Amino acid sequence: MLSIQFVRSSQSRIIARWFTRNSITRSNQVPKSSGDIKNDEVLGTKMHRVTNFDRRLLVWVKRYPSFAEVPDEVSVDCLLNSRSKARIKSTNYLMVAAVIGCIGAVILGKRAADKGENLHMMRDQWLQERLEKDKNK
């Protein structure tokens, strides 16, 4: 019983990890086959081939001035930092949109309250319409 719970909890951690990890990992391990190792892979920062989405992201966080000036390969640290900045930037925009939506809902609610519209009145009106339809049948 205890071992089954342990296995299930470890499986859920692995699945949760899939959704939270980036496609880039910060592993600095040297490959095991030492016969064909190139010096540029062992020394220096790891490079990552940039996709179109990554290019747009790097330009959006102002890491590069234009889409055409983004190189084909960028360091992993540069890409991870730009993803973090983009995540924070988009979260800030979503918070502003949520605040604007809340203010809009309050304004619309106050206008409806001034007109005398509320859920209780709408329900009573609907009920009266249904009763009239049932009497006419």
From TrEMBL:
<keyword id="KW-0812">Transmembrane</keyword>
<dbReference type="GO" id="GO:0016020">
    <property type="term" value="C:membrane"/>
</dbReference>
<protein>
    <submittedName>
        <fullName>UPF0389 protein GA21628-like isoform X5</fullName>
    </submittedName>
</protein>
<comment type="similarity">
    <text>Belongs to the UPF0389 family.</text>
</comment>
<dbReference type="Pfam" id="PF06388">
    <property type="entry name" value="DUF1075"/>
</dbReference>
<keyword id="KW-0472">Membrane</keyword>
<dbReference type="InterPro" id="IPR009432">
    <property type="entry name" value="DUF1075"/>
</dbReference>
<feature type="transmembrane region" description="Helical">
    <location>
        <begin position="93"/>
        <end position="113"/>
    </location>
</feature>
<keyword id="KW-1133">Transmembrane helix</keyword>
